[in-house]
Amino acid sequence: MSDTVRESWGSKAGFLLAAAGSAVGLGNIWRFTYIMGENGGGAFIAVYLLCIAAIGVPVFLAELAIGRHTKRNPVGAFEALRPGTFWKHVGALGVVAGFMILSFYSVVGGWVIYYLAQSVLGNVSALSSPEAAGVYFNGLTTSGGAGTMLHALFMLVTIAIVARGIRGGIEKVSKVLMPLLLAILVILIVRGLLLPGAGEGVRFLLWPDLTKLSPSVLLTAMGHAFFTLSLGMGAMITYGSYLGRDANLPRSSLDVAAIDTGIAIAAGFAIFPALFALGMEPGQGPGLIFVTLPVVFSQLAGGTVFATLFFLLVFMAAITSSISMLEVVAAYFIDERDWSRPKAAWVLGGMIFVLGLPSALATGPMAGMSIAGLLGGAAGQGALGNIGILNLNWFDLISHVVSDYMLPIGGLFVALFVGWVWEQRLARAEVTDGCPGFAWCGVWLNMLRYLAPLVIAQVLALGILAEFPAEHFPGVASFVAAVEPWLAVSAAVAALAAVALAVWRPQGEPA
Ligand code: TRP
Fold first, then answer.
1. Which of 397, 396, 57, 112 is nearest to 231 (CA)?
2. Pocket lined around ligand 1, Cβ cut-off 6 Å
3. If we measure between CA atoms, which residue out of 311, 252, 225 comes closest to residue 21?
4. CA distances from 33 to 131, 292, 354, 363 (A)
5. Which of 106, 131, 202, 436 is the most buried (most CB within 10 A)?
């Protein structure tokens, strides 16, 4: 442990902006829209919103509480609370997840930089047809060199900010213009809605077609709820560790979740009505915003200005998120290994850059490379080739493994820790400090004890089974069909129990 004075946020608003800045990012605009497009629209949104409310907000509050209580990075926090136990590995899992997420996040951040530069030149708003926009995007992502350079550039910006520290870097950047992003989304929404045929897109977003639900849709929606709130890898433990006693943790958790969800839904409405009006395909994957929005910009008076502003704001949003990922990793090495802040930022950032190279190349020179493909020759395509997860390219593989499995597992452990392991007295004291009238302590703890673990564990289990597709593994599919209804039933029971137990026994466990 270094014994220099620990940094802290400069102001309450500074923290809220930084936490919201971490949450609002490419996840809201780029990732949310493309995975929603791939997973059935409204039904996906419904599950996603349930996950935010039932799991996301309670776990967010739990992470902040652990962070502020211990004033440590995730590994140090668990070690401080339960020394010498396996809990520190939960923090370590988060540090590893931070490495992995940033490695592909930065690749997309690089694409945003490219679109920003091209917007200034007027080249983005000149893409007036879906075909032209598609060709343009493919030109960028299939040339490995450009993707790699841009990925490097995005990492350099992230590193430079983290190297400067909490107040100097992260907070200043976070204070920039989040409302402007929402304003420009609203302009795009209005333009999109006015296109003939936009109604189909509104329907796609608002009509939850429940037949579209499947275990893999549930898994993706839950994983994204963690991703978008920056949960499950200790980012909020780390940000909470820089918070003072006067901060209102429950209020901040709700505010961040509300802002984050609002921006994601706005992004959905900015994209899908226009997409349907233009006769484009919703399930086209990670290129979605890069091929849809330019066409909308081309139809706006002043499209060049709007395109530039939009990609500038998305870039800002991406940076305030990427710094929170590097910050978790860096905080661990600064606190526990006595590294200087600049050393941590540069060395770790450099490693993340290298780890991201296959992602940068996955859409181009390494297209089609998957684990099943690599093992194909040796192990025989057979059974391996049928397992969903083994067929993903590097970019999709990392995104899927981290967001859909590692973050929910991290969140599961945070919920179990605060719900069952940490002294209830301390957990309650932590969340009511700065929020004296907080009446939901009991409900919150019960959600962490029962609802969150039950839902996360079941969705994870179903998701793993869903890697074995029905055509090739009929036994697995019929097992899933048999147990599926229990998920809904048990989640509903746990939700009721969370409230009922808190009402009947408002003091919770005897202290
Ligand atoms: N929440 C950010 C987004 O939506 C991404 C992010 C930042 C993140 N920090 C994180 C995701 C920590 C998981 C964990 O773009």
1. 57
2. 22-23, 25-28, 101, 227-228, 230, 233, 235, 321, 324-325, 407
3. 252
4. 20, 11, 27, 19
5. 106
Separation of CA 61 from chain center:
16
CA distances from 388 to 362, 363, 372 (A): 17, 18, 9
In terms of Cα–Cα distance, which of 215, 222, 212 is closest to 451?
Answer: 222
Residue 495, CA distances (Å) to 61, 160, 224, 455, 464 in order: 18, 44, 21, 10, 24
- Residue 235 CA, ligand 1 centroid: distance in Å: 8
Amino acid at 487: L
Two structure tokens written together for 348: 């770790």
CA of 130 to the centre of ligand 1 (A): 29
Which tokens in the block code for residue 313? 């704001």
Token couple for 9: 């946020």
Question: From ligand 1's centre to the CA of 347, what distance in Å?
Answer: 21
Ligand 1 centroid to residue 158 C-alpha, Å: 14
* 431, 441 contact by CB (below 8 A): yes
Alpha-carbon Rg for the chain, nearest whole angstrom, is: 22
CA of 105 from ligand 1 middle (Å) equals: 9
pLDDT by residue, tens only, the chain of 511 residues: 444 567 676 666 667 777 888 899 999 999 999 999 999 899 999 999 999 999 999 999 999 999 999 999 999 999 999 999 999 999 999 999 999 999 999 999 999 999 999 999 999 999 989 899 999 999 998 888 899 999 999 999 999 988 987 666 555 655 555 677 778 888 889 988 998 999 999 999 999 888 888 888 888 999 999 999 999 999 999 989 888 888 899 999 999 999 999 999 999 999 999 999 988 889 888 889 999 889 888 887 788 988 998 898 899 889 989 998 998 899 899 988 999 999 999 999 999 999 999 888 877 666 667 767 666 655 545 666 677 776 778 888 888 899 989 999 999 999 999 999 999 999 999 999 988 888 889 899 999 999 999 989 988 888 888 888 778 788 887 888 787 777 767 777 777 777 667 666 555 444 3
The SS3 call for residue 124 is coil
Q: How many residues does the chain have?
A: 511
User: What is the sign, positive or negative, of the torsion defined by CA atoms of 171, 177, 179, 181?
Assistant: negative
Tokens 């890898």 identify what position?
A: 233
Please identify which residue in the block is written with the tokens 């962490």.
448
